[in-house]
Amino acid sequence: AMAQAALDAAGLHFDELNKLRVLEPEVAAQTAQLREECRAFLDKTAEFQKIVGSFIELVDQLAKAAESEKMKAIGARNLLKSIAKQREAQEQQLQALIAEKKMQLERYRIEYETLCKVEADQNEFIDQFIFQK
């Protein structure tokens, strides 16, 4: 017991295998346990970093896909706008053509009426000429 007290005073201890140690067996056991916990913590941290890395990769892929879809949608919208403008231009051309044809029809109608009057006048002249003979 006295030898044990002298060893304790010198900071030396015997472990369960009766090996001489500088650390108390309890402190040595706590140190080993802490080392294991640290190792487990580091493993979990590495695993977490892997998960976060793959999550970031996935989010990047989704962002790229969303950007691509957005560009497609913008392209489709622009195409629709240009088609609508083309249709509008076509409609205006057709309206102008209709107006032109209506004016032409009106000129022909007036010309026809004039010719009918000329024909009637000529027929009347012919009738008068025949009756005079």
TrEMBL record:
Matching InterPro entries: FT20 (IPR028172)
GO cellular component assignments: centrosome; ciliary basal body; ciliary base; cytoplasm; intraciliary transport particle; neuron projection; non-motile cilium
Database matches in Pfam families: IFT20 (PF14931)
GO biological process, one term: cilium assembly
Coiled-coil intervals, chain numbering: 80-111
Transmembrane segments: none
Subcellular location per the Swiss-Prot or TrEMBL entry: Cell projection, Cilium
Keywords: Cell projection, Coiled coil
Name of the protein: IFT20 protein
Organism, scientific name: Chaetops frenatus
